[in-house]
Amino acid sequence: MRKGEADVASSSRTIAIGDYFERFVAEQVSSGRFNNSSEVMRAGLRMLEEHELGLREQKSIIRLKETDAKLNMADQAQKISTEAAAKVTNSVQDAMQALAASELTKSAVAIPATKCQLRARIAAE
């Protein structure tokens, strides 16, 4: 094995890890925590894998929160649109009722009270 390389999974696979990590791996093995450099590398890779899974989970949570926020905004927009439509509908209904009431008032005054008045009006028209 050359300087800066460590045995990973088999004797046929080597990787360059540099002087710093070569010393770190050797310290881990000499401390007795690990039996060999392969165990150190596997432990490091497991930690990296857990870290990457955590990042993916965080990104998924962020995407879900963004989607939820967009859906809430869409719901609010729909609610506002529905409320605005209801206001317009109520305004139109109020206007129609006011118009109908004024027409009824006009026509109520214009309707002759007796047959004689009615005949006179028809004759005049």
Written description of the protein model:
It is a single chain. The protein has 125 residues and is mainly alpha-helical. The protein contains three helices and two strands. Strand 1 and strand 2 form a beta hairpin. It is rod-shaped.
Query: Approximately how much helix is present in the residues?
Result: over 70%
- Count helical runs: 3
Mean pLDDT score, rounded?
81
The shape, in one word, is: rod-shaped
Strand content: under 5%
Which structural class fits the helix and strand makeup? mainly alpha
One letter per element, helices H and strands E, the order comes to: EEHHH
Largest sheet: 2 strands, antiparallel
Q: What is the CA-based Rg, rounded?
A: 43 Å
Give the end-to-end Cα distance, rounded to a whole number of Å: 120 Å
What is the domain total for the residues?
1
Query: Widest sheet: strand order?
Result: 1-2
- Counting DSSP E segments of at least 2 residues, the number of strands comes to 2
In terms of per-residue confidence, which ranges show pLDDT below 50 for 5 or more consecutive residues?
none
Keywords:
125 residues, mainly alpha, 3 helices
Short summary:
By secondary structure, the protein is mainly alpha-helical. 78% of the residues lie in helices and 5% in strands. It is built from 3 helices and 2 strands; from the N terminus they run ββααα.
